[in-house]
Predict the 3D structure of the following.
Amino acid sequence: MESQATILVVDDSPENLQVISAVLKEHYKVKVAINGERALALATAAEPPDLILLDVMMPGMDGYEVCSRLKAHPATARIPVLFVSSRDEEEDEARGLSMGAIDYIVKPIRPSIVQARVRNHIELKRSRDLLERLTTQDHLTGISNRRRFDDFLALEWRRAAREQAPISLVSIDIDHFKAYNDHYGHPQGDQCLIQVARALASSVTRPTDLVARCGGEEFAGVLPCTDSAGASLLAEQMRTGVLAHGLAHAHSATHSHVTISLGVATLVPQADESPQALVDLADAALYEAKSAGRNRFVARQR
């Protein structure tokens, strides 16, 4: 059974919130916000909405500002925004659409029109999400793949360079994975990869972070706006999380169970650098972790 989509309705008028919610609640989960600040908080929550109906004219932070902030944030940039406004001038609609909104509905609300447009945009989003999963998801483990990793790192690198903020990268290898495959066989090796991926993914709780499988037994985590101390803390949580799974590894020279080694790199991007600088720093730290005996992390920053 297909799960219900979640719609976030943002309007400073309780009456309008009630009217729109009544139109949608039969088919969708409806959340409401009476101002822009509350809308942004709900949009970045653990369970973000699938679609946002956003009033244009609100005191304080208006709908245009809310939309601009949503589109600038990596965790909310891809949530479809549908403006709802009493302003029906061509320039108002053009402004909303140019900011990244997918549609513009003019008040007063006509229930059949709202239902039809919301339904169409939810169907489009589900199709787009499915296509994106097929092209950016690792087919074995279900986490992000190398393509998604490369795109995400490039995006967050540009953001960190623009804001002069730290960005961290964690490079991860399963220790002695060839010996694991040779002893237990490739089907069991695949199960090992799946379990490790789950442990790594469960260690990451911020929607702005990404964990990906980059190939074979290699994984990575991209941590925007994260200093070395924060990245090191997460790396240790990843290491202990994998070890806690208790996957037997009889032919490991490091431990009787499956372990990982991690290289943590943190820097503030400079104008003349590419993301490869961060990758190289993380790989060098990973090499140190392996040379020091594996089942550990080494952190380097610049």
Q: What stands out?
A: The chain has a mean pLDDT of 94. The chain is about 45% helix and 20% strand.
